[in-house]
Specification:
By secondary structure, the protein is mainly β. It has strands spanning 3-5, 19-25, 32-33, 38-44, 47-52, 57-62, 69-71, 75-81. The chain has no helices and eight strands.
Length: 82
Amino acid sequence: MNDVTLDSHCWPALEAVDQAFVERWLVSEGEAVRAGELLARVRLMQQTVEVVAPHNGVLETIFIPAGERFGQGAVLARVIPW
């Protein structure tokens, strides 16, 4: 899977209208990443959730910039395998 999303288990008991926001990206577009590497920190309700790389590759595109809100199922970024 190339798309980076917030795992569905992070959204328990939340209504579809609830949103999270990206606190900050720790990796820039075009950078190489390793599976499990921390890519971003997301704020959901009262907690910070870490978003990690799904596999080794390159962070091709960030779709949700830092400070932007997003809903459940949104694609935050795309990692292309190498």
